Structure formats: C-alpha cells, structure tokens
Amino acid sequence: MAVQRRKRGALAVVAALIAGGTGVASASPATDEPLPRGGATVTLITGDRVTVHDGDRPGTITGGPGRERVAFRTVTADGRLSVIPADAERGLAEGRLDPRLFEVTTLLDAGYGDTAELPLILTRADGARPAPSTLDTTAELPAIGSFAATSDKSPTAFRALLDEPGITKVWLDGKREPALDRSTAQIGAPTAWQTGLTGAGVVVAVLDTGVDETHPDLVGKQLAEADFTEDPDNTDLDGHGTHVAATIAGGDPKYRGVAPDARILDGKVCVSGGCAESSILAGMQWAVEQGADVVNLSLGGRDTPEVDPLEEALTTLSERSGTLFVVAAGNDGADRSVGSPGSADAALTVGAVDRDDAVAPFSSRGPRVGDGAVKPDVTAPGVGIVAAHASTSGHPGQDGRLTLSGTSMATPHVAGAAALLKQQHPEWTGQQVKAALTASATPTEGASVFAQGAGRVDLARAIGQTLTTEPSSLPLGLQRWPHDDDVPVARELTYRNAGDRELVLDLSVAGEALPAGLITVSPRRVTVPAGGTATATVTGDTSVDAVDGAHGGLVVARSGDAVALRTPVAIEREVESHEVTLKALDGDGKPTADGLVTLQNVVTGEFQGVFPAEGGTTVRLPAGEYLAIGGFDRPQGGFAYVLRPSLRVAGPVEAVFDASTAKPVEISAPDPDAEELLGQFSVRRTYEGRTVGTGNAYLGGFGGLVSIGHAGPEAPDARVLVASQFQGAAAQDGARTGYRLAWEHEGRAPDGVREAPTTAELATVRTSYGPLADGVTAQRSLQPAGDGQATGWGVYVEAGRSSGAVDHVNDDTDWALGMIGSEPGGAGFELNSAVRRFEAGQGYRHRFAFPVFAPAPSAEGPLLQRSGDVLTARVPLFGDGDGNHGSDWQAEGGTRLFRDGVQVGASEQGGHGRFTVPEGEADYQLVTGARRTTGLTGFTTAVELLWTFRSGHVDGVRELPVTVVGFSPGLDEAGAAAGGSELGVPVVPRRAGGAAVEVTGLVVEVSFDDGGAWAPVPVVDGVARVVNPDVAGFASLRVRGESAGAGFEQTVLRAYRITA
Question: Per CATH, which fold does 479-571 belong to?
C-alpha cells in the first residue's frame, strides 16, 4: 500500500480521486449508521416518490399515479427515515410486509432509490406456485420455499402483492455488505501443516465479489465458478473476494493461505454496490449442490429478532447437507450489532482480533438481538491482513497484494481452519467441525464472551482436540421481569470424547464480573469414557442479585492442570417490562378494530404498529417513555388522529385512543383561490439527549378531512407541528406565490386547529437565483424547522426566473429555505439555507446559486467529529457564495484518512466518511474532494480539501476544530468579473454552528489556467485582492491556513468567470 507522508502528497491523492473516480486502497470498517448524503429521491414500491436531505431529513413526498391524496406516516429513529403509505399499514402490522420496503434510508443505501423496479424475495404459501403477472421471477429459492422477483414500483403492482393469497411474506431483496504473513501463524496453522494438514480434498466456497483465479497465489485452486449478480461474468472488480480466497487457500510461500491445498468454488454474489440477498441465497444453494464442505460468507447486514430469509436458508442447508457456513460478525463495533446471517444458530460466526489478540474496536459484539445468545462464536486475525490483490479491481496494491482490515478478513482464517479439520476428520459434519474449533479456542483475557465468543481460533489445539461439546454454545434464554420469583432454567451440556482414553473433567463457570450463582454447572466433575459421552447440567438462576440485561460466561472443563475446552453460555434478565393494554374507540366513542396505534420508545427509537382488537390488545413493553398515536379512517371519509406524546410505562397501564375527541384541522391562505399542496402534522421528543419523531403527511393538503386531538399527560419536551403549504393562483415571473404556514405546539397536541392568517400577518420572502446552464430548471421549497434543522416536509415548486419568487410565511416557527436545480435527465444539485425565523409584516431577500461554490457547513452537525475511536466527516462540498450548504448529485470523488502518514481508511463519497481508528493520539490528514460531471452551473468544476489535525481517544462525542472557507466576491448576475480589473474577494472561514473562526498564516492563491500555475495574492482585512487578466476565462482559488491547531488547504477550480 502506498504511503503518503507529506501534506502536498496527500492533496495529490485527492486530485487523483477527482481526476479518475474513487479507489479504495484499504478497507476501514464502518459503523452501521448511514452516512449523511446530499439530496436524493426514492420511489417506493407503491409508486410514491420521497425526496430527502442527508439520508434522513424530510424533503418532499409525491404520490404515485392515482395517489394524489394518499396519507403517509413518517418515522425517524437512529438516523433512518421511514415513509409508510396508509394502505401499507395493516400489511406491516400483520407481518406480511418487510418494514425495509419503506425505510427510505435503507433503500438509498442499497441503491434502490429512484429506480423503476424493486427486487423482492417472496415467501410462498404451502403448495402455492403461480405469481402475480406484475412480477418477473428471477430465481427459485427452494431452501426457504421462496422465489426472487422484480416488481414494478406502481400502485397496481403493490395492490397485486397484497391481494395474492399465495404469497405470505414480501421481503425486500436487500443488500448486504462485504464486511497474511503473520496471521496464519497467529492461529496455529503452521503446526497443522507440519502434521500434513493442508486442506487437500476439501472444497471451500467463497461467496463474495468474485475471485481472480489468474493471480499467482490462486492459479489452479478454482474448482468451479458461477455468477449470481447482474455483472456479465465472475471478474472480481472489487478485490474483496480475491483477498478472502487467498487467505483461505493462497499458495505463495510467504503469504500462504490457511488451507493452501483446498479447492475453491467461486460464487459471485456481490458487486460494488453490495450483495443482493437473492444472490446470496442462490449462491448458498449452489455451493451446497456443488459439494462444498465449507462456505465462507464475509458479508452481512442488520439483524432483527425475526428470522430472515438468509438465516432460514443457512439453518436449512446446514441441517440437510452438513455444510459449515462461516460468517463475518460485522464491522459495527457496538453491543448487539452482530449481523445476519451470522446471527443464525448454525453459523460459525467470526469476530476480529489484532496481532496481539485484542478484540478489534470495529468487530461487532453480541449478545444476539432478540434472545441474548452468544455471538460471535470465535475470533480470528482481522487487522492489517495481507493477501492477494485482484488485478481487475482497480484498487492500488503492492507486489500483487493488498492490506485490509475487517471481520471479512478474519472469517476466511476460520474457513481455512475448518477445511484443515475437515481433511483430518472427513466424516465430521459442519457442526462437529464448529464444535471442535469453538472448544479449542483461546480466549483473550479481559474481553467479554459477547465480544469474542469462545476466543481466538487455535489450530494447534484444534487438530489434537478429541473433546467437544454439544451444543458448542449454550443459550439459556430470556427470563421475564420481575426476577424475584424466577424459576431456575437448566439445559444439558454433553461432552463427547473422540479419543482413545478416558477423560476426567473438572467443571466450573468463569466470566467477567459474573454474579455469584447466576450460572452454575453440576456435577462439578464428570468422567467421559473413550469414544463416549457424559452430560452436565448448566443452570441459570436469574432470581439472584444481578443487574438486568445479558450475562455471559464460559463453562470451563479441565483435565488435570490442562484446560480441555471452554463452552460459551449466556442468559438474559429481561429489563423491567410491563403489560400495556391498547384500546381504540371510533368516532362515536365505540370500540373498534380499525384503529392503528403506533408506539415509539423515545430513548431507543424503536417503534411498532398495532391494530387493537375491539376489546383491546395487550403488548409487553420495556419500562420507559413512549410516544403514541392512534389513527383512524373515518367512515364519512378522512382521518382522525389522537396523539399521546407521553405514555409512561412504569407498571401495567391502559391507553385509550378515542377518535371522537379529535377536532378538525382547518387552515386557509390569504388568497381564497390558492391551492393547498401539502398538509402535515408531526410530533417529536428530545429526551435524555436523543430526538425521535413520527407524524403524517397528506398530499393535496388537509382539505377539511383531518381531525386531531390530544390524550394523556403533557410532555414538556414534546413539540407538535401542524403545517400546510399553499400555492397562489397568480404567477409572477414564472413562479406562483407561495403561502407557507406552520404552528408548533409545546408539550401537547392541539384539539383541532383553526387558522386563517392575512397577508399582513405574514412575512414576505423574495428569493432570487444565480446563473444556471440552459435547460436547468430551478425549484424552491420552504420547510418548517425546529432545533436548528428542518423537521417538517416541504414541497418543491417552480422557482421562477432570476428575479425570484415570493413566499409568505408565518412567524410561529422557524423555516429552512431550499432549492434544487435539475436537468430532464435527472442530473441535479441542491442548496439549503440555515434555519431562521421571519417576523410578521417584514420583507426579506434570500439568494441561491451565486458563485463562488465552495464547502459550507450545515446545521446537521460538525464537519468532523470523534466519537470514542470513530472519526466521522460530513462536509457539504458545494455550498454557494452566500453560505448556503449543498451538494451535487452526480459529483464523483472520495475521502481518505491518513494517520502518521499511513492511510488507514477510505470512502467512495466526496466529503463523507466514517473511520474506526486506534485510540492513541496521532497526527491525522483527511483529504477529500469531488468533481462535477455535469455543467449545471458552469462553476466550481472541482473541489479539493485537506485537513491536518491531531486526535486521540475521547469519551463521548467531540467536535474537531476544522475549517472550510467561503468566498463571496461582488460578481455580476452571470457570476462574472471584468477582465483587467481588481476584484475584492472576501475570504470567509467557517465552522459548523456559525462560531467565529480565528485564522493564522492565511495564504490565498489564484490560478487562471484551471490550476496549472498558482500565484499568491495579497489579503487585506480578510479580502483577497485579485487582479484579473484582460482575457476571457475562469479564476480558480486556493487558500490555506491554521485555526485552533488544525491546518486546512482548500482548492476551488473555476470559482468565477472573467469577461474580456
């Protein structure tokens, strides 16, 4: 891997990214949180279109054909936004629809945003075969009684799915992510090689991005290949699969794989955009049919308590074939973050350790979501792993090799180890191999069983291991609160001795801070005859004095002074939870089964929807604060909603939602002929430092069809927004006058709304727009805002010509202004203002899209922050000269992070990246940039940015004091300055939050040949004095300096135009 050691060299990396797209030189494990992004549009399976900002901030909603007045529920939690049409609610509540179908953030992450079709996995009812004609079947998935298909994103196709009795579940065909000189010795492989174990005769399937079988390390290794992706062949365009395959079976003497004589099945299931679940499923089926003994899955995705198709297939195929599936735990690093399908019982799930056997900070931890079981099962080296570099990947490498980190790299070490054991014991099933590897693992002292399972794989012990347990990991389950009357739960643990001599085992339970008596084993000594078994009983007693939550440990078996094996065991004490009875009453105050109650935990963000039965329905919820809404369809048409901002669960409680208490929402604009475009209400709560929210939006406005009311106690931190947006009948300069009206209520929901403001009671905002290329259409929006950011949905309407558009807004809430510029083909950019409040009766002017376009901070958070040992960059690269922050939808670029001169992470997004780094203090360089691929404005064709700073571990979250620079010269309406004259260019250092920035060593340079040559210009009182040549062209600007100990260098190509 190339090492960049000097500032200018690091900046050259960005220039290379801008010139030739993005290349990842080393993989940096990322957290599961979605990265921020610019504006994007998602078409839902229903045909409805949703536009969002930065992945989870509300933008606009447009109904599909014939759905111009559909109602939507919106939910934001953990940085993920869901938009749920009213006609999907019951299918979700009954479990027939996968919630991910409406997770806007998830759809964007998977690349399913503004597409005409959506890939699905559909579960058949018993004996059902036909599929709706609206589906195009792409693969049969017999292992789970399902099939993969694509569906049009349309109201007709969605209704056909709901009405088809032969389909019991509609899943999104989501995307999973692909998650050696010393590392083989670390797991004891040389000891196994010395005994003649090399993997000969064993078949290992690598389901990944493809394998470069022409690499010298892999020549002659491949047995068969198959492509399950949309790519034309098995070429490894990413390099991940080749690296994995070489770690398993590489033949180079120095970089030897763990099982160098194993044969490889190359199943391509991943492309650069991720791994489609249907591709993974088809690849798993194929691998088993091809006779794979071991299947390596260095991939995964978010797990839920529900058994998903990948988990089901892994379990079924393991049972039927005896194949062992070795799966990456994931790179999230948090507790309860082990991904699917590694979450399946039958999977041998692998976490990552470094060269000193310390669990890597990025390695996903357990316990398993839903039942508290131990996952991962084992660990293996996964930090700084050197293996083969695919010649077709386009990523930089040295000597045909690449250094990568992640649980993706740890997993093939274990797959290779499994191949050696399978060679030694060809009669063993996959689960027996798993048991041996788990039983012989060496734990890392001080690490939790939920971080490492049984410990780091130890082949030197495994090949001589004659003692195993069944099961290899022992879950004792979840015990319901309260615990003072809990009955102990016991499970048998069977010791199996495959050796030729009797073993006497002393048994005990070990675990970090494991409460006394919580987990015990009896008897304390067992004798296991040669070739026989013995049984012990492991008991969990959650009535003992212990904190609620998951507890894990190891059942340790010793034979004499030697440790024979360790078996992970876990039990979970349910946190305080209570029965909550939900009742719905219709508009006449009578019980109904047609009311939907949604509940959102204000601390965790988790939400669920319930249709209570007529007599009520009882659900069990953890103690805490909840935000609840009861929603009803009214027989006479329209909707009624009862909001309960505070539902406190501290004991058994009943919550009644009575539609008869809701009162009408009646809002009108000063112009009686104005058209209502959008109505909405939402409630958000900021509780213990976390904000969650939910609400509803109505295309075509409230229209007298919506009623709203309050239930239960008030919540001081609750904010209930009611808003409506209108468009006047008369057009001025190509744009119709807008009326943007919003009211925010503190603590409680209003009992109906009746508002009819006059123009005199509103502020007037006139917005003008800078020069745009021919064919580019501009649209404007205003969104209700609170807490410094947009909190309500907007609607984009015609922006008008450069002279601008007029909007009238009320002063009862804050507002965020926005614009998008787009071409018919879909290329576009967006700009957004800071949040502000307008005073009634006053006039205001706002400008968008005037040069210079340059990085500008947004209100969404720091430009760069450190949370523990995770660095996150969020840099809007294409703001404008007035300080509006923005993004270009088609810009290409990347971000790279260097630590003490060595690259430690890379992202394929210009301006954005999330990187896990070592905790020690070090010097960092972050280089990022992007180039525009379209001429939407004709300005700022490329941006480059370099930060230098020093950072070490922090507790909590800390903003790092990095700086971006804006330029605001006085240009004409075309964004031009006269040639042959001096131009004053104000240099505006900026930081998130609008804090003043003191800069030292400020240097500004100008180029008139697109960055070929640079010349310094004087800076007087913060204004650069640029003398423009008397030749038509463009000026580019470069600035560098230091602030608060952090250096910056920023380059903008084609900042403004020069007229002759």
Answer: Immunoglobulin-like (2.60.40)
